[in-house]
Amino acid sequence: MTSDGGRGLRLFALVCCLLFTAFGALQWNDPDPWLWMTLYGYAAFLCWMAYKGRILKTPMWVGMGVCLLYGAYLFFDTDGVASWFLDHDAENLVQTMKAEKPWIEKTREFGGLAIVFSTLAFLSSRTKKSG
C-alpha cells in the first residue's frame, strides 16, 4: 500500500469501510435510497479493497468523478447548496427535514459526497499500486 507498510492507512481504510457501510444502511428510508446505498456501498467496497492491500485507482477515480459531477449539480441546483447559503442564510442543517425545505436535504447530500470524495482522494493519493 505504501513503502512503510501503511498500517495506519489500512486502519483508516477499515474504519471508513465500516462507516460507509453504516451510512448506506441508514439510507433505507431516504427518498432516493438506491442512489445513496449504491454510492456508500461503492465507497465501502473500495475502502475494503484498500484495507486488503488492493488499490483500485481507476474505480476510485470513477467514484471521485461521480461525486464531483453530482456535487456540482447539488451545488448549483435551484434549491441546492448555493441557495441554502445565499437565499436561506445557511439555515441550520440538523433540524428535521421538511418537504418545503429541499435545500437542507441537498446540502446534507453534498456533505456526504464531499466525505466520499475526500476519502477516495486521500486513499488514492497515498498508494503506489493501481488497478
Topology of helices and strands:
Blueprint: H1 7-25, H2 33-51, H3 57-76, H4 81-86, H5 102-125
Helix pairs in contact: 1-2, 2-5, 3-5
What does this structure look like?
The chain has one domain. It is 67% helix and 0% strand. The protein is built from five helices and no strands. α3 packs antiparallel against α5. The longest helix has 24 residues.
Q: Round the mean pLDDT to the nearest integer and report it.
A: 84
Query: How would you sum up the major sheet?
Result: none
Helix content: 55-70%
What's the structural domain tally? 1
Strand elements, count? 0
C-alpha termini separation: 12 Å
Query: What coarse outline follows from CA principal-axis ratios?
Result: elongated
Q: What's the tally of helices?
A: 5
Q: Give unreliable regions as ranges.
A: none
> Class by helix and strand content?
mainly alpha
Order of helices and strands: HHHHH
Strand content range:
under 5%
Radius of gyration: 16 Å
